[in-house]
Structures are given as C-alpha cells and as structure tokens.
Amino acid sequence: MKVMITGANGMVARAAISHCESIGDEVIAFTHADLDISDREKVFRLFEECRPEIVLNCAAYTDVDGSEANEQTAYAANAAGPENLAAASKEFGSEFVTISTDYVFDGTKEGFYTQDDEPDPQSVYAKSKYDGELRATAANDSSIIVRSGWIYGKHGTNFLSVLPDLLKQGRELRTIGDAYGTPTFASDLAVRLRELTGKNASGIFHATNSGPGVSYFEFASDAAALLGRDPQLIKNISQNDLLRPAARPYNSRLKCDRSELFGLAPLRDWRNALAEFLDIVS
Ligand SMILES: NC(=O)c1ccc[n+]([C@@H]2O[C@H](COP(=O)([O-])OP(=O)(O)OC[C@H]3O[C@@H](n4cnc5c(N)ncnc54)[C@H](OP(=O)(O)O)[C@@H]3O)[C@@H](O)[C@H]2O)c1
Fold first, then answer.
1. pLDDT value at residue 136
2. Would residue 125 show up in a list of annotated catalytic residues for this protein?
3. Closest CA to 270 of 250, 249, 256, 251
4. pTM tops 0.85
5. DSSP state letters, 85-100
6. Average pLDDT of the chain, as a whole number
C-alpha cells in the first residue's frame, strides 16, 4: 500500500516508517520541513501529487509545557493539522489515522479511561489535541483517531525514552510516584496504527501496551532492575513537587478494548515491551 507518514523525524513516525517498510508498503515520509501540516494548501497539493492510500499522521507539537506559552503553534499542529489531513484524505479517498493523547482526560477517574469517558483536557497541549480529534472527525467522519499515552522508544526525547541512558550514567533520578499511566512502546503503537487500516474502522481507539498501568517511579524501578542498576538511584517524588507550567492528569490509564472488535489482539504487556526496548538500546 502507498502510505504517507507525517512528522517523519519524530519518535512514533520513525517506528511507523520502519514497520510499514518491513511489510512492503511504499512509504512517502514527510518531515516537518517537507510539510507543515497546518499549511492546508500544501497538504492538498501533496495529496494530489502522491495519492496516498493510507495516511498516518504522526506529526504534532508535543512540548506539553511549551504549549502553554505557544498556544498558536500547538493549535496549528495539533488541531488545524489533523483537520487538513482528514479533509484531504476525504477528498482523495485515503484512509486517515491520527494520534491523540491520554491527556484529553482530567485524571480524576478511578481506574481506566475508555472511549466512552468524556474528555476534559486540562492543558493547552491537551486542549489542542482534543480539538484535533473533533476537527478531524468533523472534516472526515471516517477518520481513525488513536489515543495513546506514555510513549517511549528509539529516537524519543521524553523522560521514558531517555531513562535507559540516564540509568547507565548512574544518575540519581527523581520520578513521580503518584501519577499513573499505561506505557506504550512506539514500535508496538506503530504496528497498531497500520493494523487499524483496511478494516473499515473509524472513530476513537485507545492503544497502549497491556497491564495494570504504572507510575513513573514503578516504570523506572522496573527498568533499573532489568538493567541491573542500583534501585536506590530511583527517588520517589510527587507530581506536585515538579513546578511545571502545564497541568497533567494524575491518572491517564487507557483501556483498549475497541481494537478487539476488529480482530486485533491487545498489545503485549508493557513489561515485555520495556524489556525489548532496553535490549535494543543497550
Ligand atoms: N510521546 C508521548 O508520550 C505521547 C503520548 C500520547 C500521545 N502522543 C502523540 O503521539 C504522536 C507522536 O508523538 P511523538 O512522541 O512521536 O512526537 P515527536 O517525537 O515530538 O514527533 C513529532 C514530530 O512532528 C513534527 N511536527 C511538529 N509540528 C509539525 C507541523 N506543524 N507539521 C508537521 N510536522 C510537525 C516535529 O518536527 P519538529 O520537531 O521539527 O517540529 C516532530 O518531528 C503525537 O500526536 C503526540 O501528540 C505522544
């Protein structure tokens, strides 16, 4: 299949490019420099030239704290961008998949969030991503919106992705013990994004690795144990101890049950995925 991937230098995009190439897709990958997805005219022009059968939108402005001061940039990439791609996909007959976030929820629920729970985003980043969901769906009701959370992987720059390096350096790490999420290996998410196509699926899906969900402290402690590092290096702090500009949910664990309706097994347990990631980066 001819697959267009946006945000091609990003963590999930790189995993998606690698997966799609491995299954024989013809991949057309656009970096931010090649295509700013908020540029509607250019989006439509490139669709006309490339005629993709599938579009995986991995582009986003992902700086959660930076979004507080750069609202326009966040909304351009995270809301107008998906809307433009969804509209172009409708016009040119492409299947459209875009990634959203567990941060659309406010975190006050006990237990796991499902697709039926009402979003209540608390930060500019989260609001812009939720707006992206709504605008993509309004532009093209065949859009597939995949919410994920706590994504880590090769080429990632977020805390979970750089954790192995920090542990190897023997650095003491302050990790949040009172915020819970469902970790997701970018390579597993990439497979799921592609698997959701060709099934006449649309609407909102949750996609994370399986398991009960963890805190950052538990995730880091498991990584330290798997790498044979001193567990004392992992310090348990509260989310409140970090004075960050953007609010984050205390609980953003996602339940992923809709994929099963389309014959897709749950993604593997997060501990197995973490072990593979640590192997790859060791
Ligand atoms: N990482 C997580 O834990 C997490 C959790 C939940 C959901 N998500 C979602 O997962 C998706 C992939 O995230 P990721 O972690 O792979 O992000 P990432 O590594 O930050 O990659 C995002 C890419 O998008 C590009 N980009 C930014 N604005 C753009 C625009 N206007 N047009 C085109 N490209 C643009 C960036 O390029 P520049 O850097 O050059 O600007 C970057 O290469 C995003 O939708 C994100 O919101 C991530």
1. 98
2. yes
3. 256
4. yes
5. HHHHHHHHT-EEEEEE
6. 96
Q: Which residues pair with 204 in a beta bridge?
A: 145
Domain total of the chain: 1
Distance 136 CA to ligand 1 centre (A): 17
In terms of residue numbers, what domain contains 128?
A: 2-214+243-281
* Identified catalytic residue from 61, 103, 113, 125: 125
C-beta of residue 176 within 8 angstroms of C-beta of residue 200? no
235 belongs to a structural domain:
no
The answer to whether the CB of 91 falls within 8 A of the CB of 45 is: no
Which residue, by CA, sits nearest to atom 1 of ligand 1?
151
Distance 142 CA to ligand 1 centre (A): 22
Pocket test for ligand 1, best of 62, 150, 256 (most atoms within 8 A of CB): 62
282 pLDDT exceeds 80?
Answer: no
- Across 18-46, average pLDDT: 98
pLDDT tens digits along 260-280: 999 999 999 999 999 999 988
Instruction: Give dist(CA 95, CA 86) in Å, integer.
Output: 9
- Residue corresponding to tokens 């190897």: 168
Q: Which residues contact 95 (CB under 8 A, 6 or more apart)?
A: 53, 54, 55, 89, 142, 144, 197, 198
CATH label of the domain that carries residue 33: 3.40.50.720
